[in-house]
Amino acid sequence: MSEGKLAGQFFDAAIGLLQRVRDEEAPAIEAAGTLIADTVADGGRLFAFGAGHSSLAAQDLVYRAGSLALMNLLAVPGAVGVDVMPATLGSALERVDGLASAVLGSSPARSGDLLVVISLSGRNALPVEMAMSARALGLKVIGVTSVVYASETASRHASGTYLKDHCDVVLDSKIAIGDAELSLDTIPAPFASASTVVTSALLQSVMATAAGVLADRGFEPPLLRSGNVDGGLEWNDRVFKEYGDRIFYWQR
């Protein structure tokens, strides 16, 4: 089989997943975008969390051109990506009880804020506890996960629950268990992951919805511009100064 044919198959698989998410998750996308708009309009702050590769989609929302300036990364040391050595440590930390509560308790998050929790499987202790702890503190929680994992895998949290069980809104990425879209008889393992593509697109659709809801209500969405276009840095500096008390990645 030619490499070009495999590439085309992956694109087809990713496009198919994006179409499913667009069509099947439209009500949840609308609800999530409205919840974010409510939080912004009410003076709340926005946070995003994901461990391992799920952190990529969280980081894609933070300090990003065309996105809301109020979105802050809630980072768990050692679990933000694959930069920790060894990389397997990050996966191990996802299964540690108590870590999420400690991180959230020392963060600036407070009642009235909103947290986006991203976990493909939604089964590990860290994302489950993060959502549970956030709601206990009075935060709204949007969960992004593949719901099918809850029916075909065992929870790794002491409660036996999954991320989807502790959210105000759940966004289902539709990713199959194992996160690999392609297979061949000549290759012993499935390959070509699509979760980052789909999850990032899903969340960008939510942010677009939030911006539209705010505009419909007469609020100017606090959006960032690219620093690589003329006037972008000046625009962003104005937004940072206006919303500085709700932005934690900016040097005041």
**Number of helices, where a helix is a run of at least 4 consecutive DSSP H or I residues:** 9
Query: Low-confidence segments, ≥5 residues, pLDDT <50?
Result: none
**What number is the mean pLDDT?**
93
Shape: globular
Fraction in helix: 40-55%
Radius of gyration: 18 Å
What class would the helix/strand composition place it in?
alpha/beta
Distance between the termini: 55 Å
What proportion strand? 5-15%
Largest sheet: 5 strands, parallel
State the strand order across the main sheet.
2-1-3-4-5
Order of helices and strands: HHEHEHHEHEHEEEHH
Total strand segments: 7
Protein name: UPF0309 protein OG288_19465
Organism: Streptomyces tauricus
Family: Belongs to the UPF0309 family.
InterPro entries: RpiR-like_SIS, SIS_dom, SIS_dom_sf, SIS_GmhA/DiaA_subfam, UPF0309
How would you describe this protein?
Belongs to the UPF0309 family. Residues 36-219 form the SIS domain. This is UPF0309 protein OG288_19465. With 252 residues, the chain is of the alpha/beta class. The chain has nine helices and seven strands. Helix 2 (26-41) packs across helix 8.
How are the elements arranged and paired?
Layout: H1 3-24, H2 26-41, E1 46-50, H3 54-59, E2 71-73, H4 88-93, H5 99-105, E3 114-118, H6 125-136, E4 140-145, H7 149-152, E5 169-172, E6 182-184, E7 187-191, H8 195-216, H9 232-242
Parallel strand pairs: 1-2, 1-3, 3-4, 4-5
Antiparallel strand pairs: 6-7
Short description:
The protein has 252 residues and is of the alpha/beta class. The chain contains 9 helices and 7 strands; from the N terminus they run ααβαβααβαβαβββαα. It is globular.
